[in-house]
Amino acid sequence: MNTLKFIASRFLGAIPTLLVLICLAFLLIKSAPGGPFDMERSLPVEVEANLREAYNLDDPIHIQLLKYVGDILQGDFGPSFQYRDFSVTELIMAGFPVSLRLGVSAIIVALFFGSLIGTIAALKQNTKTDYAVMFFGMVGISIPNFVMAPLLILFFSIFYNLLPAGGYNNGNPQNMILPVISLALPQIAYIARLTRGSMIEVLSSNFVRTAKAQGTSMRNIVFYHVLKPTFLPIVSYLGPATAAIITGSVVVEQIFGLPGLGRYFVQGALNRDYTLVMGVVVFYGCLIISFNLLVDILYGFIDPKIRANR
User: 44 — phi, psi (to 5°)?
Assistant: First the structure.
């Protein structure tokens, strides 16, 4: 019952956040110069006036905002100004599965290798292995994925011709390897550093010293006593990290030519497609709020003390 109350309170708290996000995004987009019907060749005044009336662009800004919020509450993100044969909802549903597959694959790779590398570094603290892991971790954090992606293409596709340089090819796993690595590398570095710091702190705890004094092997101490509290900060990080990977794959999707949601977002921004940009922003906002809620719930199940307090 307490868990249901907590979930309900988080949902209710997310509503004002989402409304603020919608209002800010709407006003920022509307304040940008130009419009969705600005072209190299100007439209006749009568035609542009008819288009603005058809899309309710001639209404006052507050009326447009209220109408847009009302449509969103009905699950309607509106029509796209540039993709005339598609609604924004259809475009989101077409691109999101690609972005979701790319993001989930990247976070799984990052979680596995980051936690493994971080654990090794913590167990070999202040050794050459530890220093090497932290060095590569800092390199992974420092190099953004829009730099790493072309380097991976240059090395694996052009020099050695091992993997495709781009394209989706109906989700062929070979086409996904380089984009996944590009997205996962910075997260591997973050998770490795989090795991190392958290495990070092747990290894210095009183219950670990007690287990050692009782003659428990280091392997059993790590598996049965250390790993669970070690992963608490990592679980907290996974929520925003997963959302950031899925929503931050815009550049990677552009570089590798993947038909994901980020590609539509970029094209919508370039074409001043208000409804498409707004739809993607609101959809991403809902994703981030949902991931953070899931992390809070999972955090409570991992740590019984937190669940009891809630």
Answer: -60, 150
